C-alpha cells in the first residue's frame, strides 16, 4: 500500500516484487525483535523503482495484532482441555521464532498473569 501510494503502482500481481517484499518483511520482523525501528530497503522493487521505508516496532505490532492474538488460540485450547487455571502454571517455555517478538511475549505474559 505504501508503494502504491507513493508511486501509483499496484504490486499485487507481480510475483517477483511480492517475493522481494516478503523477504525484506521477514528480515524486518527479526530485526524488530531487538530494535525499535528498522529501515526496509529493496533495490528495483518494481519497474526499476527502489523501495525505502522506515518501520517502527509499534507500527509492526499494529499491523500484526490480529495475527499475534491468534497465537493465543492454541494456548486457550490447551488450558481448556487440561482443565488447568493460569494460576496453576509455574513456568512458560517459549519455542519457535515468533516467540522472540516482544508483543507475542507480552500477550503471553498478560495471559499468564505476569509469568
TrEMBL record:
Q: Which GO terms describe its molecular function?
A: ATP binding; ATP-dependent protein folding chaperone
Key words of the record: ATP-binding, Coiled coil, Nucleotide-binding
**Matching InterPro entries:** ATPase_NBD, Heat_shock_70_CS, Hsp_70_fam
What is this protein's name?
Heat shock protein 70
Keyword Transmembrane in record: no
Q: Which PANTHER family match?
A: HEAT SHOCK PROTEIN 70KDA (PTHR19375)
Which residues does UniProt call coiled coil?
11-38
Q: Does the keyword Membrane apply?
A: no
UniProt organism field: Calcidiscus leptoporus
